[in-house]
Amino acid sequence: MVENNNDSRNTTPHKPVPEKFSVKIRRAVFWVVQYWRELFNFRFDKYMIIQVIPGVYGMMLVAIVSALTYLCVDAFLDSTLKGLFYTFFAAPLGFLVSASVLRALLEFYMVVFKISEHVDELVGLRDTVDRLSGISDSVDEMVSVTRRIPFWRALSSSARTERKPRTERKEKNTSEID
Fold first, then answer.
1. Most Cβ neighbours (<10 Å): which of 39, 63, 91, 171?
2. How many structural domains comprise the chain?
3. Residue 66 falls inside a structural domain
4. CA 95 to chain centre
């Protein structure tokens, strides 16, 4: 009557399917097309440098390694001792210093552009605040209009007469003490 669908073959966990190679290629082509489109955008309404910095960092690291490799090979052609010195001391130290300066410079650029984006957002907030400041003016106008309404004045004046001003209360308290 009722079939049991708890087959042991169907309960095996499924492995996540990796992204197809064609999808990765499509994304890469899309990124390249977008990059070229932004490269020739003469309106300068978007900061392209933020998207380019990782690629620039990679290319510059490859350039530094290539230059240091050339210097090591050239040093070996002069003398073996000089080549060993360059290979084990000068090149690693040069790479460490160059890569650190490059990284600091690119991070500085990133921070400058992030600050610029935040300033753009703040300008948008300023416009909103300016529009909202007009609301306070209209509220003040409404208060002045409501004070002119006769029954509103009667209500507000009766509330004032019920409460005595502080100076009268103080005078009364001081006269009771004497």
1. 91
2. 1
3. yes
4. 31
Residue 170 domain-assigned (yes or no): no
Q: Which domain holds residue 88?
A: 21-163
What per-residue confidence (pLDDT) applies to 104? 96
Residue 171 lies in a domain: no
| Residue 83, in any domain of the structure | yes
Quick: pLDDT tens for 142-168.
666 666 666 655 666 655 555 555 555
